[in-house]
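Still learning. Show one?

>
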Amino acid sequence: LLHMAEKLYLIDGHAQVHRAYHAYPKLASPSGEPTGAVFGFAKMFMALLDKHSPEYVVAVFDPVGPTERKSRYAEYKATRKPMPEDLRPQVERIIELCAAYNIPTFRVEGVEADDVIATLVKQAAGQGLDVTVVSGDKDLLQLVGGRVRVYDPQKDLLLDAAGVEREKGLKPSQIPDWIGLMGDASDNIPGVPGIGEKGARELIARYGSLEAVLEHAGEIKGKRGENLRAFAEAARASRDLAVLRTDVDVKLDLAAARRRPPDSKRLMAILSELRMQNLLKTVSAPVEESNADYVTVAGASEWAGFLRALRKQPRFAVDTETDGLRPRDADIIGLSFSWKAGQAYYIPLKGPERTRLLNRSAVLEGLRPILEDPRISKVGQNLKFDMLVLRRAGVELKGAEFDTMVASYLLNPGAKGHNIDVLAMEYLQYRKFRTEEVIGSGRNRTTMDLVPVETVARYACEDADIAWRLYEVLSDRIEKEGLGRLFREIEMPLVEVLADMEWTGVAVDAEALRKMSAELGGMMAELEEEIYRVAGERFNVNSPQQLREILYEKLRLEPPKKTRKTKALSTDAEALEELSAIHPLPKLILEYRSLAKLKGTYVDALPGAIHPATGRIHASFNQTQTATGRLSSSDPNIQNIPVKSDLGRGIRAAFRAGEPGWRILSADYSQIELRMLAHYSGDEALLKAFAEGEDIHASVAARLFNVPLSRVTRQQRARAKAVNFGIIYGQTAFGLAKELNISNSEAQRIIDAYFAGHPKVAECLRGIIASALDSGRVETILGRRRFVPELKSPDHATRKLGERLAVNTVFQGSAADLIKKAMVAIHADLRDRRKNGGPWRSRMIMQIHDELVFEAPAEEAEELKDLVKDRMEKAMELRVPLAVDVGVGRTWLEAK
């Protein structure tokens, strides 16, 4: 016999799915699959289990297609909108998720979920269970009574019979009568005209039931009484539609419904595929390390045996364990290797006192011929890091064949992260031994060389083992999804290119920046005084709250907008730009902020980033962070240094050649994204302008404003330039009007004139969007892809964003493909010249979007200039010629 306290929770899946869909943002997985409702349902579901701990759980969903109520009343739910296109696949995912949680689901063809729930409630109550229906649907309140309650998770409200009377003013059994009188707009149940929720409640409370109300309809005065008499049958029919069936052909299987641990592998696979990292953390992963064969190589004979085995391998995974995360400063404390799933070896070089370690020099010399042999393929996660720390130790890692982080990025460029823990869960359904378990976190963090060797060995061996397993999975995926050539010919060679750039770094004149900092400080102090004068009082210019008070309370300026989160009156750049048209203070604030950003982000920060040993800045160039394929930089970010302002140019002047008699060479693709537009669209006017070397902006202006090329004014050219680049970035008439300070109608006229003069461009953009809508993704010129789930959003603004992302990715991503290809070719040329005994010392030191920056001895500068220009202009064959502007100087500014 069941214990009286055992609980069954029946989840109204239909109600909870719709609630989650509307409550959570329009999220999507990296592959473009919509996930907002899945995430919301899972959050509700997990919180429910944690809080209430039911012994039994069942979820019930509506069927696809009409139900039997439709046969009784043809207009039933006729006014309800069809299920949103992006919700239907999420329902299937949620049912799949329930299965992974070992939660039985019911979905009966032709029968609504409410009727299935009512039937299961009757069966469960008959077996002595306490039953809780999880729903916010008022129809289900009729089931409450005895052992049956209804729980609304959104309101955290649990209702028994007394609770229903308290909340609704009705007994549970009166709910169908109530609906019969007032109807239900969501289900298109008519009820009685003129009687609403409150009126129906009053009538039921007074007379006790619908039938009693209808019997006394003659006593009820006015229009209400007339309608009750006229629509009595409609009221009865409406009530009957609201009454839930308890005779559905289903059976409650308590053995299947008993709560038990989820299928961790299956659950992790789903959550990993959907990239729901926060939910993944809650899953107890299966223990696998007990089956792994992880060996710590600690003695001379073991080391000799390991080295013999390693020499026989044509390919292996390698990982370095270090005492820090900055490769220029990190010491290797050990290395791990794997060439078979479930097997790995750890070579300890550094550890706590009284630890058995191998001789560092002997190990590195023993490994050198293997690690430096390009014919032996190396696999790893973030191999660039390993290249750099090994180089610091005097070993050049060659033969980097497969970086799992880079492979994951190509497969899912929109994913937020590609660290090995995430990839292990996504592709292997395996939870790794966490770093925090080894070295702690926050202030309690210790360095790896103080952690016991056996602990580090487990962590390190697992890294190499998982990298190998990921290689086995991802290498097939890369090929099957048509990304093999891009991966092998561009992205993997680029790992070595970036490692060389980071190792070399760039010289910066710290003293010049310090002087500039003092000048900026003085300019900011003067601006502050001017701000105080215009404001009429002193205040903290950096305080949004104090600025808000000055702008909107003291000066009484009309607020253009509020912030999204707090709904406070906005003081962001966009708001201040609008306010600048009516008062001088906002413009002064913007100038102050611009100076403060330059000073803080670059002028003050760059000297602090100079490495004390090399005297150079060694920024990281990130290969796996942007959805378009562009590189980004960090620690510090040197890619966003402004170029248009004098102050920005002053910062570039501080970047200089780092050796006496050397020069900086800058090579910049000319209008490459517009050339990509011409190539893709085949627009005759654009092709002709580029082929003949015309100023493309002036050429477009001549057609836009119907004037000869020689008569184009500076203003016309500026407007054409804005349109040219706006087209690539999906700019609207509103955006163009704002940029050019013209009316929306004038901006629309210019855009219309552009497309009228370049019809193939319009056709090209429509084709990109249509293709992306059909396939869910766009591809660049080399097959790099990006998923664009926004295109299928029910929200208009989100769809328009998707269109802009789709168009921009094709052109910006193709430009990224181009410069990456050029980088690989130039790097190979420079390497070959050095390898063949030439005196060449020139080196690539920075990539800034469409620009490559080099450092070279003065005597090599001219030849390097010719080589770089040639390789960049011949990197791809387009329908238009590629053009590269090359400059040479003592500083980056001079070279520009």
About this structure: The mean pLDDT is 90.
